[in-house]
Amino acid sequence: MKVAVVYWSGTGNTEEMANAVLEGAEKKGAEASLFTSAEFGESMLDAFDAVAFGCPAMGAEVLEEEEFEPMFTACEAKLAGKKIALFGSYGWGDGEWMRSWEERCREDGAVLACESVICNEAPDAETADACAKLGEALAE
Question: DSSP readout, 65-79?
Answer without folding.
Answer: TTTHHHHHHHHGGG-
